[in-house]
Design brief:
Strand order of the largest sheet: 2-1-10-5-6
Order of helices and strands: HHHHHHHHHEEHEEHEEHEEEEEEEEEEEE
Oligomer: single chain
Number of strands: 18
Strand content: 15-25%
Helix content: 25-40%
Amino acid sequence: MGFRANPAAERSRITPVSEEEKKSRSTAGRLRLALGALSGLLAGFAALAVAELTAAVTRPQAGPVVAVGGAAIDRTPTAVKDWAIRTFGTGDKPILQIGIVAVLTVCALALGVLALRHRRIGAAGVLAFGAVGTAAATSRPDSTGFTDALPSIAGAVAAAALLHAVIGRLLAPRPAPDDSPGHAGKPLNEGWDRRGFVIAATAAAAASAGAGALGRALSGSSGEEAVASRRSLVLPAPDSPARAVPEGAQVRVAGVSPFITPGKDFYRVDTALVVPRVDATAWRLRIHGAGVRRPLTLSFDDLLERGLIERDITLTCVSNEVGGPYVGNARWTGVRLADLLDECGVTPPSRGGPADQLVARSVDGMTIGSPVEDVMDGRDAMLAVGMNGEPLPFAHGFPVRMLVPGLYGYVSACKWIEDIELTTFDAYDAYWVRRDWARRAPVKTQSRIDTPKPFARPKAGTVMVAGVAWAQTRGIDRVEVRVDDGPWQETTLAAEDSRDTWRQWSFPWQATRGGHTLTVRATDRTGRVQTGERTRMVPDGASGRHSVVVTVE
């Protein structure tokens, strides 16, 4: 007859765990969690590195960070986009990318810890993130199909395999209880493969760094043809050159914006996380659609053979707040757009044409809709190839961009253009119209105080107040300044270049000590006075009067 052991007696023979052993186990547990989190971080690093390498071979815009970032931009509420532009300016895109990487980092750490308890679930979580990247890449407007899914798939598979392997080095069977003095209270993780973990983690980090570096090198070389095509381009002399800027167009007051904005300082507001680099020798433009009796497909050389015009034109972003920085003036060189449309047999709606909207499409999938009537009404709407005497910078649309004087950029200024379709506003809503912006958006009459700056502390006496005003296609007739609640006082206008450019102004203010508010308003050549009613940027541009508060000492 067998003897049944008494459980209570068995438990009584187990050697008690000392306080030192408890601390040892606690320390070992924390170390194990930290190494699990590190494993997840290594897997995340590998995912991004392998994805970037794959994207360099397929298409850089298909990388998961860029694709997810683009999808985030597309789905972000308009109010949040406006806040980002106001807060971060042209740095909004790097901030978004940093945010995406930060979120991925936190998720990678969490998945590493999860994999310690559920190894397969942790790896499956990595694959789920790959699925998100795949969906984002293949749903982008500029997606080329299944190949855009490859970077996210490759990165996720590599990361899942790495996490599964490295976590395996941390998972050791729980040691069986042993009542011998040498085994009492053995730490739960004793026996895990320390050497194997260090080797695997080091090798993974090195391989990921190498893959990332190679991917960046290949991505850089993928745009070499575009860089070479721009470097070798010599723009023909324009058939219709711009007149010289009038000598008095620039006021002699420190702090006022230069009349011609240098390309490096010209504002950039768009949705492209990666600036497209298009080879001018391979570029093509297609013109087609309703009322196009003779469709055209043009190469870059074909476009240059049409004859060039050169004009000074001020561009304004609809995201510009009252007194904001998103306005700039440059000398543009290009082909008159109305002439191209005439060549295609297009007639404006006022003469019976069936199309009232011109939809321009960019290589990155952006769509911008412009009124056909405005494009063909005699203003200098153009397909620009040059800016300030040089080929367009890549950030501003090389090799070709569109611009229409008098319209905000979101309804006229398509960069990296590759397609023009004639249609109607009833038939198609362009990108920004689908996001609550107006279909038509002429630039509003606006003015800005460039100096003194807000919260400046000038000395009492004569203080020069100066700035710029704009009302493209209408021109500026008068600019006035008001001090506090006093009367409006007329300023001195600089010489006018054209009605399509901004106009500078200045006013010698006899400043007295104390706090003061300076306000400016402009009147355009139609007699319209800049309104004092404040409106937000959505749906068709901000309105109101710019003011600055200063303290005179």
